[in-house]
Amino acid sequence: xxxxxxxxxxxxxxxxxxxxxxxxxxxxxxxxxxxxxxxxxxxxxxxxxxxxxxxxxxxxxxxxxxxxxxxxxxxxxxxxxxxxxxxxxxxxxxxxxxxxxxxxxxxxxxxxxxxxxxxxxxxxxxxxxxxxxxxxxxxxxxxxxxxxxxxxxxxxxxxxxxxxxxxxxxxxxxxxxxxxxxxxxxxx
Length: 188
Hints:
The chain is mostly helical. It has helices at 15-44, 53-81, 85-111, 121-152, 162-187. The chain has a single domain (16-45, 52-187), classed as Cytochrome c oxidase, subunit III, four-helix bundle (Four Helix Bundle (Hemerythrin (Met), subunit A), Up-down Bundle).
């Protein structure tokens, strides 16, 4: 018979990771609900905006900016895992700046979308999807910005960097949501 001492302890997921996963799960339900409403309304309303390369220029630039920022965010995590303090700060700051550039691109896109928030429900759902995504990106910018400030104070190390990891996970999430929104709003 095995003694209790010989049984390896169960690995424990941190409270921060569990909270983030629950939050992302509920946010996913929110976005899926809005996408379903968008799809239902799009079928019942004519939207006379063509899917041309010219029309897609800003969304494609935004998509590129966001995915480059995701690669940069990943590098921040790689850096801190090897105790690269300076590169962590540089990558976090670059990610924050690219996130702000993405939001600026979305604001520009809002003003040139051909829809208005006061349009019948279809325009409202379009802007709600885009607006909430922009708010999530801004939330990620704040999260990563706080991590940048903490990194500037030397608060992270190769063995202690969960906040950086959680910030990067959230950034992956906003990029994944954007990919779905880009396909649904601009390509379908």
